[in-house]
Amino acid sequence: MELLEMPWPAVKALDRRTPVVFPLAALEQHGHHLPVFTDSLLCTEVLRRTKAALGDRVLFAPLMWLGNSEHHLDFPGSMSASPRVYLDLLRDMAENFLSHGFNRIVFINGHGGNIVPAQQATFELRQKYRKTPGQLLLSTTYWTSGADPVAEIPGLKQQQMGHACEWETSMIWKIAPHLVVGDLKKVPDVPFGTGGEPAHRAWVMPDRSEPGHIGYPQYASPEKGDALFNVFSKAVVALMERVIAWDGRTWDL
User: Is residue 175 part of a domain?
Assistant: First the structure.
């Protein structure tokens, strides 16, 4: 179900166990060869395929295209809500539905910078509503929802999601090839590196990449893009099936 298409009485009539999904993405630079709306386009397509499998059992809010993209602001065209503002925005969106008794809230994210704020927003809400039983507050990112692209897709160069990389470039090439700019064979590799691993190192994009991408775009193909969409959407569907089937009591889904 699409929230944006429904009058409020139809929303009021829903079973409060209906999962409510908030798609999260961003508008930020994606190197020299991909559009600034890449994360939003990709999250939209993953969810388009997800919705086809789930039907009317889940309520989907419109995509929140503004993300926490402070680390990209050195590149013109990037837009960001500052971290605390963004976290509060996510809290408020979820609480709008919690206040009406909906008890299964899921953030499905498509931008790395949103991961920590989404986790913190759900954590803070659960503390606020700690005496309310039967709540399920989840945050996930579509490429960390249980998919294993490397095991399922032959020929991938990358072992993980990057930025304007083989994976993202392949997916944009599949759904909007006219938005892929230039000759990908001339796009240089930007290795992931190790940073401060196993510690977490704070960074902004110029620390890691002058052109603004991380990974190996030259290995992209539309065929890989379609396969990636299928793997990611299948994993999100499997997660949402667990949310739908949850008994409202147990820790495990």
Answer: yes
